[in-house]
Amino acid sequence: MLSDIIGVPFALAKGLATTLKHFFMKPMTVQYPERPSIPTVWRGRHVLTRHRNGLEKCVGCSLCAAVCPSRAIYVEAGMNTDEHRVSPGERYASVYEINWIRCVWCGFCVEACPTEALMMTMDYELADYNRQDLVVRKEDLLEKEPDSWKREGGLRSWTPKERLGIGR
Ligand code: SF4
Ligand code: SF4
């Protein structure tokens, strides 16, 4: 009983002292849209890239879909012709979708891609108002012109080779 009488005000004072200490400390939180420092190996928004001549790097091989542990990627391949050439290979992705609700941002798809067509960026602002808009289609993923995704919004890429420090 006596220990309660002494202990309660002591615990209260200790708690208030902790609150007071944090009151004068620099806040740890960052106010949106201020950007926190992002780790250089951050795996954010996917992007489908182009060759310097504008052709798409994706050849519709579906390796990214095969390796995805969440089955978040859907690819349909089309055949290139001389009249309608989309990629340098025999085939291209006529349909390419990633379901960001399913995605666990593991980066396996990027590592599996044989042409370095699929990359991940530093962009983490992916929230949306409905589920349908989080199934992103090729039109949304494909960069407008070669390397444009690197310039837009201060995005930064990484590739498995970059991560190992041996360049692209
Ligand atoms: S990051 Fe991982 S979970 Fe997301 S699409 Fe790629 S392989 Fe699938
Ligand atoms: S993104 Fe890469 S792995 Fe996926 S279908 Fe295109 S070329 Fe193949």
Question: Any chance you could write out the topology, listing elements then pairs?
Answer:
Layout: H1 2-23, E1 46-48, H2 63-67, E2 73-79, E3 91-99, H3 108-112, E4 118-120, E5 135-137, H4 138-141, H5 148-151, H6 160-163
Antiparallel strand pairs: 1-4, 2-3, 3-5
Bound molecules: iron/sulfur cluster (SF4) (2 copies).
One iron/sulfur cluster is lined by residues 58-64, 75, 93, 112-113, 115, 117-118.
Describe this structure in words.
- The protein has one domain (46-164): Alpha-Beta Plaits (2-Layer Sandwich), CATH 3.30.70.3270.
- The chain has 168 residues and is an alpha+beta fold.
- The protein is 26% helix and 15% strand.
- The strands form 2 sheets. The protein has a 3-stranded antiparallel beta sheet. The chain has a two-stranded antiparallel ribbon with strand order 1-4.
- The chain contains 6 helices and 5 strands; from the N terminus they run H-E-H-E-E-H-E-E-H-H-H.
- The longest helix is centred in the first third of the chain and has 22 residues, at 2-23.
- One iron/sulfur cluster binds at residues 58-64, 75, 93, 112-113, 115, 117-118.
Task: Using brief descriptors, characterize the structure shown.
two-stranded antiparallel sheet, 5 strands, 168 residues, elongated, 6 helices, Alpha-Beta Plaits, three-stranded antiparallel beta sheet, 15% strand, single chain, alpha+beta, binds iron/sulfur cluster, disordered C terminus
